[in-house]
Design the sequence.
C-alpha cells in the first residue's frame, strides 16, 4: 500500500486550471502578528484537546528548539523548487517571497518541535484521505478550516479549539511557512505528514494550488487520486515513538526563537491548567508543572515582580489570586439565561490596572478582560465557568481565542445576546469592584458636600489672593505689591506654599496685557486703581436683587476717601480674567446706593462716584432676567 | 514595533527636517534617547484633517478614532498623551506622511504644523486621542461609540472649545453635552455665528459662548459631574442668552 514512487516528489500540490488567488493565506499574517505566544498557545491547546479520555493525569508537552541540517528535512528540495518559481504580484507577496528566497540557502536551520504525550494522537492514518469523520488524520492532514468534532458532546464543549485554524499557526512560525507533524496512534503506527502554505504558482507549465502536502499519493482511475501518509522513517528530529502528536517547524523564524517567551506564554495562557495538574510542559530544560510554576512566575527573569508595574502582563497576579482567594459565585445573564461562574477576586491598592482573566474549563485564558470604566481600579480576578458557561464562552471567542467578542456572530439574535452578555459581565464585575473599594475605603456616614464647596471656594480665594496680591496699586507705571491687608489665611499660605506663581502663569497673557495697558492710560491721567481683595468684598443675591459691600477699613490707602469708581471683571473657572466680558448696563437694570436710593451713573462700564461711608461702600443692584447668578467677579476700585 | 523616543531639540531644527526629507533620521543616533516604547501594532492613521470637504474630513476623523481605539489607546496615558511619543512615532511613518500630506516637503513650517505640532487641543491627534478615550471609557456598545464619534465630529467646533479648558476635559461632561445636542438637534444652532452682538467680536459662535458661560459660572467644578438631566436646564438657560430657545423649551 505504501509504495514509494522514486520519481514522485515527496511534496504534493494539487494541479489547478489557472491562477486566481495571488495572496498568501491571510490567517498566516494574523498568527505572525501574535508571534511565539500565538504559536505556543495553539499547539498547547491542541495537545490539551487531545488528552486521553478517562485518564486523570496531566497532558505532557515537550517543546524543543534546536538546529538541524537542511538535508535532513524530508523533501525540503521539493519545497525550495516551488518557492523559486513563486511570482509576487503585490508588494506584500513580493516581500514575503524575497524573504523566503533569502532563507533557503542556509545549510543548518533552526527548528522548534512540540511533542505531546498522554494524548490520543490522530487516528486512521492508514486510511489516508478518507473523508470519514472518525479518521482524524485525514481531517488534520488534508483539510483547512475544519476541526474534528468529538463524539462525546461534553468533551467537545470543553475543547479549546473551534475555528480549525490552529495548524496554520505553525506554518506562520516558519520562514518558509513549512510544518510537519509526526503521529503515533494507539496501535503504534507511526506516520509523518506536513503542510506548506505558499501561493498559487506555475511549475513546469502547470498551475498549482497554494497549499502543499507532505504525503504519498495513489493515482486512481478517471484522473482521480487519493493521499496516503508516509510511514515515519525520517531523521530523529521528526520521530514520534509514543502515542500522541509531534509538530516540527523547521526554518523557525528568528523572532520566535526565544525560550523565555515560550515559557512565559505557557504560564500566561495555561496557569490554571498547570496549577490544576492537567498540564506539564518541558521547554528544552525548563520544567513547568504544578510544583514549579511559581519558580517561573516569581522569577524576575520572566516576570516583573513589582506589583505596581503590572500594567500589561498580569500572570503573577492571576496566579496569586487563583491560589489564595476563595472563589465566590458570579451570575451573568445574556438577557435570556443566566450563566454561573466562579470568581477569584483580589483587591489590592497597589495594583495599577484591574483585569479579569477569563478562563475556559480546559484551563486556557482567553482574555485579560477590561471591565468598562474600571480598567484602572486596583483589583485582579480570575473567572471560570462550568460546562454550559464554557460552551457559551467558546461561542464568543474570536478566531485566535484572545478576546470575547460578538462581531463574528452572524445570527442577529445571538449577536444581541452576546453583546448583552459582555456588557452584563462588565456590569456585574463593576458592582463587585465598587463593593471592594467601599469596603476598603470606609466613609463615616454621609459626606457633607458643603465642605467640598467650601474647600473649593476657599482654595479659589487663596489662589486669587496669592495671584493678585493683597492690594495692587498702579501708580504711574510701577506695580507694587502691598501687604497692608493680609488676611489670616494668606499668611498661612505664604509660609508653606512655594507654588505661588502657578495660577498667574496659567493666565492668558494676551488678556492680561490688554488690561494693564488700559489701566495705565487712564490712571496716568487721573486716578489710582486697585483690585479689591475678595476678603473685603461681600456679595449677596436675593431674588432679583444683589447687594455688594466693600469694606475698606483695613486698608490704609482708601479709608480716607469719600467716593470711588467701581468696575467689574469676570474670572472664569480657570482663573483667567476677562475685563471686557461683563456689561453692567446689560445685566443690571439699576445700580443704586441702598441708603439714599441715589442711582449711580455708569460710564464706560464703570460705576461712578460710589460713596464711601466710614470706609465702607455699598451697592444695591437690580438684576435683569438674563443675569447669570453664578458669575464670579474681581472688583476694581479707582480713587 | 519599537518607537525610539526623540531627544529634545528636534523641534524647529532645520537639519532634522532635512534629514527627515532625505530619510536619514533613523541613521542618526544623536536625535534619539535610549528610551523605547513598544507597540504591538502601529498602523497609519490620519494625523491632519485640515484638508478636503467636510464629509471627507469626517471620514478622516472617524478613521483616526477607529485606529487609535484599536491599536494605540491600550498604552498608558503617559504614553499616548505624550507629545514626544507621537512625534517619535510620526517620523517613522515618513512614506505615509509624504504621500498623504505632500505639503510637508514645501517648508519647515508646514512640517512643524502637520507633523511636529504642539500636542494640545489644537492638535488633531490630541483631539482624537482624548475624544476616543472619553467615549471608550464610558461607552462599551460599539454602535453607541460610533454614534458619539459621529456626534463629536459633527460638533467639532464645540468639542475644541470644551477641551481647550482643562476643567471641561472630562468624559461625562463631553458625553452629556453631545447627548443634549443630539436630543434637541442643536448642532446647527450651536455652530451659527452670533450676528447681533457686536460687543462680542466678529467670529463668535453660539456654542462657544454657551461653553464659556459654563466656564464663567461658579462653582464651575460642579458642572462636569452633573447628570445629563441636571445639566440640560442650565445648558438651555445659557443657550437662551444667545439664541431664542422658546420653541425648544416647549418641545422638550
Sequence:
Amino acid at each position: 500500500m505504501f509504495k514509494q514512487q522514486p520519481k514522485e516528489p515527496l511534496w504534493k500540490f494539487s494541479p489547478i486550471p489557472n491562477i486566481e488567488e495571488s495572496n498568501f493565506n491571510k490567517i498566516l499574517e494574523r498568527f505572525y502578528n501574535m508571534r511565539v505566544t500565538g504559536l505556543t498557545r495553539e499547539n498547547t491547546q491542541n495537545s490539551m484537546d487531545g488528552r486521553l479520555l478517562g485518564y486523570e493525569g496531566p497532558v505532557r508537552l515537550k517543546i524543543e528548539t534546536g538546529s538541524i541540517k537542511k538535508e535532513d528535512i524530508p523533501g525540503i528540495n521539493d519545497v525550495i523548487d516551488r518557492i523559486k518559481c513563486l511570482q509576487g504580484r503585490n508588494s506584500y507577496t513580493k516581500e514575503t517571497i524575497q524573504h523566503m528566497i533569502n532563507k533557503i540557502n542556509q545549510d543548518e536551520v533552526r527548528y522548534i518541535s512540540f511533542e505531546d504525550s498522554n494524548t490520543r494522537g490522530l487516528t486512521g492514518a492508514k486510511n489516508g484521505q478518507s473523508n470519514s469523520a472518525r479518521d482524524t488524520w485525514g481531517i488534520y492532514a488534508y483539510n483547512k478550516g475544519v476541526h474534528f468534532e468529538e463524539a462525546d458532546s461534553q468533551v467537545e464543549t470543553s475543547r479549546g479549539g473551534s475555528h480549525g485554524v490552529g495548524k496554520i499557526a505553525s506554518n506562520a512560525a516558519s520562514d518558509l511557512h513549512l510544518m510537519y507533524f509526526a503521529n503515533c496512534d494507539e496501535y503504534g503506527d507511526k506516520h509523518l505528514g506536513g503542510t506548506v502554505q505558499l501561493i498559487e504558482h506555475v511549475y513546469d507549465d502547470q498551475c498549482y494550488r497554494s497549499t502543499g502536502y507532505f504525503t504519498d499519493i495513489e493515482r486512481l482511475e478517471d484522473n482521480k487520486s487519493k493521499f496516503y501518509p508516509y510511514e515515519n522513517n525520517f531523521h530523529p528530529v521528526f520521530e514520534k515513538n509514543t502515542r500522541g502528536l509531534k509538530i516540527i517547524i523547521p526554518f523557525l523564524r528568528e523572532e520566535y526563537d526565544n525560550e523565555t517567551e515560550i515559557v512565559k506564554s505557557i504560564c500566561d495562557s495555561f496557569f490554571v491548567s498547570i496549577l490544576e495538574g492537567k498540564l506539564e510542559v518541558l521547554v528544552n530544560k525548563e520544567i513547568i508543572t504544578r510544583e514549579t510554576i511559581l519558580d517561573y512566575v516569581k522569577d524576575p527573569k520572566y516576570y516583573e515582580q513589582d506589583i505596581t508595574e503590572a500594567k500589561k502582563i498580569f500572570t503573577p497576579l492571576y496566579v496569586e489570586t487563583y491560589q489564595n482567594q476563595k472563589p465566590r459565585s458570579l451570575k451573568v445573564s445574556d438577557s435570556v439565561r443566566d450563566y454561573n461562574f466562579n470568581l477569584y477576586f483580589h483587591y489590592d491598592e497597589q495594583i495599577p490596572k484591574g483585569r479579569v482573566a477569563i478562563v475556559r474549563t480546559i484551563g486556557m485564558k482567553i482574555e485579560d478582560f477590561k471591565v468598562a470604566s474600571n480598567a484602572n481600579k486596583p483589583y485582579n480576578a480570575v473567572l471560570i465557568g462550568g460546562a454550559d458557561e464554557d460552551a457559551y464562552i467558546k461561542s464568543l471567542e474570536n478566531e485566535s481565542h484572545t478576546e470575547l467578542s460578538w462581531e463574528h456572530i452572524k445570527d442577529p439574535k445571538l449577536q444581541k445576546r452576546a453583546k448583552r452578555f459582555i456588557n452584563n459581565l462588565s456590569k456585574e464585575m463593576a458592582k463587585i469592584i465598587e463593593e471592594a473599594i467601599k469596603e476598603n475605603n470606609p466613609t463615616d456616614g454621609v459626606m457633607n458636600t458643603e465642605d467640598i464647596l467650601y474647600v473649593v471656594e476657599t482654595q479659589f480665594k487663596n489662589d486669587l489672593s496669592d495671584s493678585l496680591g493683597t492690594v495692587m496699586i498702579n501708580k504711574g507705571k510701577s506695580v507694587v505689591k502691598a501687604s497692608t491687608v493680609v488676611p489670616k489665611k494668606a499668611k498661612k499660605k505664604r509660609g508653606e506654599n512655594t507654588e505661588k506663581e502657578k495660577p498667574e502663569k496659567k493666565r492668558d497673557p494676551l488678556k492680561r496685557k490688554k488690561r494693564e495697558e488700559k489701566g495705565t492710560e487712564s490712571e496716568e491721567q487721573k486716578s489710582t486703581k486697585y483690585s479689591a481683595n475678595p476678603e473685603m468684598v461681600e456679595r449677596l443675591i436675593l431674588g432679583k436683587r444683589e447687594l455688594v459691600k466693600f469694606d475698606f477699613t483695613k486698608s490704609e490707602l482708601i479709608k480716607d476717601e469719600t467716593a470711588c469708581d467701581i468696575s467689574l471683571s469676570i474670572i472664569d473657572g480657570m482663573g483667567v480674567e476677562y475685563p471686557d466680558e461683563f456689561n453692567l448696563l446689560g445685566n443690571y437694570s439699576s445700580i443704586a446706593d441702598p441708603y439714599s436710593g441715589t442711582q449711580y451713573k455708569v460710564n464706560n462700564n464703570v460705576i461712578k462716584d460710589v460713596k464711601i461711608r466710614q470706609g465702607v461702600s455699598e451697592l444695591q443692584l437690580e438684576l435683569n432676567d438674563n443675569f447669570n447668578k453664578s458669575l464670579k467677579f474681581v472688583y476694581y476700585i479707582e480713587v | 514595533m519599537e518607537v525610539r523616543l526623540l531627544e529634545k531639540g528636534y523641534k524647529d531644527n532645520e537639519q532634522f527636517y532635512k534629514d527627515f526629507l532625505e530619510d536619514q533620521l533613523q541613521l542618526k543616533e544623536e536625535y534619539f534617547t535610549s528610551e523605547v516604547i513598544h507597540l504591538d501594532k502601529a498602523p497609519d492613521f490620519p494625523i491632519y484633517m485640515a484638508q478636503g470637504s467636510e464629509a471627507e474630513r469626517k471620514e478622516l476623523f472617524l478613521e483616526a478614532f477607529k485606529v487609535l481605539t484599536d491599536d494605540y489607546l491600550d498604552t498608558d496615558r503617559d504614553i499616548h498623551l505624550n507629545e514626544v511619543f507621537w512625534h517619535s512615532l510620526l517620523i517613522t511613518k515618513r512614506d505615509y506622511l509624504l504621500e498623504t500630506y505632500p505639503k510637508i516637503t514645501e517648508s519647515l513650517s508646514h512640517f512643524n504644523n502637520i507633523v511636529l505640532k504642539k500636542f494640545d487641543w489644537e492638535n488633531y491627534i490630541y483631539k482624537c486621542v482624548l475624544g476616543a478615550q472619553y467615549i471608550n471609557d464610558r461607552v462599551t456598545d460599539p454602535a453607541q461609540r460610533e454614534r458619539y464619534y459621529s456626534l463629536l465630529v459633527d460638533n467639532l467646533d464645540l468639542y475644541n472649545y470644551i477641551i481647550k479648558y482643562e476643567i471641561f476635559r472630562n468624559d461625562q461632561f463631553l458625553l452629556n453635552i453631545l447627548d443634549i445636542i443630539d436630543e434637541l438637534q442643536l448642532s446647527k444652532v450651536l455652530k451659527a455665528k452670533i450676528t447681533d452682538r457686536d460687543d462680542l467680536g466678529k467670529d463668535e459662535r453660539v456654542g462657544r459662548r454657551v461653553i464659556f458661560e459654563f466656564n464663567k459660572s461658579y462653582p464651575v467644578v460642579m458642572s462636569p459631574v452633573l447628570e445629563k438631566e441636571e445639566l440640560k436646564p442650565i445648558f438651555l438657560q445659557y443657550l437662551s442668552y444667545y439664541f431664542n430657545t422658546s420653541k425648544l423649551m416647549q418641545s422638550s
